[in-house]
Amino acid sequence: MGSPTPSIHMFSSKSSSPSPSLFIPTANASLSFPKPSNPPLTTHLHLKRTHTSLHLKTTSATALRLSTAKTRATLDEAGQDTNTPLLVQQEEQKPNKEVDECVKLLKNAAKTRRIAAKEVLSALVVIEKAKLDPSRFLETLGGLKSPGRTWMLIFTAKNDLKSGTYFPITAVQRFDAAAKRIENGVYLGPLGRLTFEGRFSWKKRILAFIFERMRIKIGPFYPFEIQFGGKDETEPSTKNPFFIWFYIDDEIAVARGKSGGTAFWCRCRQVSSF
Fold first, then answer.
1. What tens digit of pLDDT does each residue of 19-43 get?
2. Which of 47, 78, 106, 111 is deepest in the core (most CB within 10 A)?
3. Is 170 within 8 Å of 187 (Cβ atoms)?
């Protein structure tokens, strides 16, 4: 009996647009106050309307200067993440219609494989440069529970993003965010299949991984397994193979590998195990 071939199943996405931008005051945003002429100065101001009087007393120009400095410090700190540069915050939160159009093009390319490679490459360039917020990437990529989610490789590009092609055979990757497991498989129908399985780590938008075993099935014969690396439990790092993810929603994902090549995947149904 032949090996099952995964079928593409496009899942609808709630939204592919990043969150709207926020205005965050910077150190240049300060309040302007008139300077007193001859400090220390005492001023009495009386404002009268009908039978109500308001008495405002400024006791010292020094107090005014301290108040000004305190107000400026509050404005400088409000709404900022001290661990993230201001420019990055604004870039990641700014809506980008161009990115939305590129995402639509890639989804169409995944369904039809008829979009010209030049157009796909241009879309990948735009998405890489957009620097979208990766905070929900892992959850979307690997789901909330095991065995995770599976993604079919659609298109690969060389590291200069000037040439690329649709991937000619069925290659599927499974990411399990709950167990931090990865499986990478090539499926050749009745000829057999080859899969690699291991563990991964996630930091910001980088998924580093180490494969621990390989499974091989040839034709009708029973599959066999080869273990790698013994009992090594070292957490994967950028010294190992890794992906840098630029876009992930419920339908497609875009990433660049350690070697510099960029690819995009389409979410597909779970591939049956051995």
1. 333 333 344 443 344 444 444 444 4
2. 106
3. yes
The answer to whether 250 touches 138, Cβ cutoff 8 Å, is no
Residue 148: inside a domain, yes or no? yes
Neighbours of 90 (CB within 10 A): 13
Q: Which two tokens stand for residue 247?
A: 């876009």
Tell me the C-alpha distance between 243 and 85, whole Å: 23
Residue 151 contacts by C-beta under 8 Å, 6 or more apart in sequence?
141, 172, 173, 174, 175, 253, 265, 266, 267, 268
Sign (positive/negative) of CA torsion 80, 83, 87, 88? negative
Domain housing 153: 97-268
Per-residue pLDDT band at 271 (split at 50, 70, 90): low
Q: Which amino acid is at 149?
A: R
| 180 and 53 within one domain | no
Question: For residue 109, how far is the Cα from the chain centroid?
Answer: 21
CATH number (domain holding residue 162):
2.40.128.280
Q: Using an 8 Å Cβ cutoff, are 167 and 160 in contact? A: no
For the question of whether the overall pTM of this predicted structure is more than 0.90, the answer is: no
Q: What is the pLDDT of residue 270?
A: 73
Q: Tens digits of per-residue pLDDT, 196-224? A: 999 999 999 999 999 999 999 999 999 99
Question: Are both 255 and 208 inside the same structural domain?
Answer: yes
